[in-house]
Amino acid sequence: MAVVLRLRRTGRKNLPCFRIIATDSRFPRDGRLLESLGLYDPLRKDPQTRVQLDLERAKHWISKGAKPSDIVASILRKRGITAVVPKIRDRGSRTGKTKARLHRDESRAARAKAKAARLLESRKKRRAAKKAAAAAGAEKKPE
Prior knowledge:
This protein has 143 residues and is α+β, with helices and mostly antiparallel strands. The protein folds into two domains: 3-78, CATH 3.30.1320.10; 98-136. The protein is 45% helix and 19% strand. It has four helices and five strands. It has helices spanning 47-50, 55-63, 70-78, 99-140; strands at residues 3-10, 17-24, 35-40, 51-53, 67-68. The chain has a five-stranded mixed β-sheet. The longest helix has 42 residues, at 99-140. The radius of gyration is 35 Å and the shape is elongated.
């Protein structure tokens, strides 16, 4: 189960209010939750009351491997919590070819060479057949 910390929208139309929640990443945005961690009201004038957050529970979920969304990570940074998200290794920049890749390339080259040889042979047969047909037609015309 991949736990994420994200915002759940509450409030009515044009008056947004959000709950900061811990939830499974497969759950919908406003769906099931594991735990509510606080509130975020972007329309409040006072920055102190704009965000109400249980910092201890947020630290707990991050220590368990929860990944915060971009906005929640920004809120946590402003509160002094840095969520270290492990970077995904880039495996696309291999320098050499693998054994499987070398074998595949060799077999493709061999098949291409065999195909070219078959094509050349069939062209030779067609030319020979055309010459034979032309020679047979030329023998019958002198009558």
